[in-house]
Amino acid sequence: MRLLITRIPAEAARLAAVLTAAGHHCTVAPMIEIVPRPGVTIDTAGAQGFLITSASGLAGLAAATGRRDLAVYAVGDSTARKAREAGFATVHSAGGDVDDLAELVARTADPGAGRLIHATGGAIAGDLAGALGRRGFAVERVTLYDSVPATGFAPEVAAALAAGGFDGYLFFSPRTAATFVTLARSCVPGADFGGGTAYCLSAAVAAAASPLGFGRVAVAAAPTEADLVALIAA
What we know:
single chain; 5-stranded parallel β-sheet; 37% helix; 6-stranded mixed β-sheet
């Protein structure tokens, strides 16, 4: 299939390699640019661990602190793997979404052992701090980067969209899906998406993508990259 991947470049390139090896033709059109916030420091005194809900958060955390002895609670397996590669000694993976991460922390951490530091961007999805606060945990949010929405498509991508040149569109967050919808309507007016499938990481992502009238909207069985790849294969 001809697939359009809307992830940030580093993540998209790795995913494109996997999908290309499976016989697909991939084009990358990032809907978000990650802009690090310079000079951010993290006070880890009295903390028991880090909360990581994105690969960008993990990258920012690894750059902002040398502490590798505190536990890392990661939202998914891919982020957990990156944490281990960055040298963090104790890494737990929720293998799902923010709700799964809150459940993991509630099962494995002690509210009395110290606060948890949530490494985030300027915009976050879900209410992890609230979910953990109701379980007695103290959560400190540290903003390490900003995610800036794209303002247009590359000319070759716009031309392909206008010609119905993609069979599938991959969306990993409600924000990136909503950005794509906005750009498609403004930059490629009249483009017909009825012949394509929107492959979405979750129901919330699908809801954000659905206004374009895709012929099919498919949702991964679980909110992981592996499940989305399996959905495409199916």
